[in-house]
Specification:
single chain, mainly alpha, 85% helix
């Protein structure tokens, strides 16, 4: 039972991180493409759009993430002896 709950927690942490990582990856690819096209080679240029994209992704998925964490916690507490 403990191993199953630990496995569920690890899988949930991966699933919850996917929207944020996907947003960061997408914005990073777009910025890299634009830098390659315009030949602007500034490494600091990609940080601001990534931070904004991660903030928006967190804001949009915060309710879903919180619900999933609460669901896992309630399942954890209901399985306690």
């Amino acid at each position: 039972m403990v191993l199953q709950l630990a496995r569920d927690a690890l899988v949930l942490s991966l699933v919850l991180s996917l929207p944020v990582l996907a947003a960061s990856l997408l914005v990073g690819l777009v910025v890299s493409f634009l830098q390659a096209v315009t030949q602007i080679q500034d490494h600091a240029l990609s940080f601001v759009p990534k931070i904004l994209a991660v903030s928006v992704a967190l804001a949009l998925s915060a309710g879903w993430m919180g619900g999933e964490i609460v669901r896992l916690a309630s399942r954890l507490f209901s399985n306690l002896p």
